[in-house]
Design goal:
The chain is mainly α. The chain folds into 2 domains: about 1-55, no CATH class; about 60-145, no CATH class. Helices cover about 80% and strands about 0% of the residues.
Length: about 170
């Protein structure tokens, strides 16, 4: 999927490509850091900060508008089913957030695994009614930590690949 997206975005500056990929709900910075660093050959520090920016951009609208928008759209059967599915899935994955609130939200977002991250963290914060300022700061801190982890894993992975397939 990301390879097709890169084809569509190929004429944009690498910085904007990095931000867009980081802002997407599926890839977030878990996708943008390796792509920008390994594929687009951007410096790691620049990649890290652009990915942070892109990953945080959707958080404010999600925290502010997800609950009111979902309440309005639930009047329609299709949207009600969608939001029921989304919130139930998030509720199952976000037990840490439900139990520890802001601290749990930091840890939930910081662990760079599938269905954790700023998007799901924003949904969980909305679902568990965590106050905006605590939710936003927690998600930002989690994104910073996740970015460090993904950057480290990217560097280590590149080194292992080089040793196994290039220098070997």
């Amino acid at each position: 999927m990301l390879d097709k997206l890169l084809v569509v975005l190929k004429d944009l500056p690498n910085e904007l490509i990095t931000i867009i990929i980081a802002a997407l709900p599926v890839s977030e910075l878990r996708g943008s850091i390796p792509i920008a660093y390994l594929t687009l050959k951007e410096p790691l520090l620049k990649t890290y900060f652009l990915s942070i920016i892109g990953n945080i951009v959707p958080v404010i609208p999600l925290l502010l508008f997800l609950r009111p928008l979902s309440e309005k759209l639930r009047h329609f059967r299709l949207w009600r089913r969608f939001f029921d599915y989304l919130f139930e899935r998030t509720r199952k994955k976000a037990a840490l957030v439900e139990k520890y609130e802001a601290l749990g939200l930091i840890l939930f977002v910081a662990i760079p695994l599938p269905v954790t991250g700023a998007w799901t963290g924003s949904i969980a914060a909305s679902l568990f009614k965590i106050r905006f300022r605590y939710a936003f700061l927690s998600i930002c801190l989690g994104v910073f930590i996740a970015g460090l982890i993904v950057s480290a894993v990217t560097i280590i992975g590149k080194g292992i690949f080089f040793k196994l397939f290039v220098a070997g």
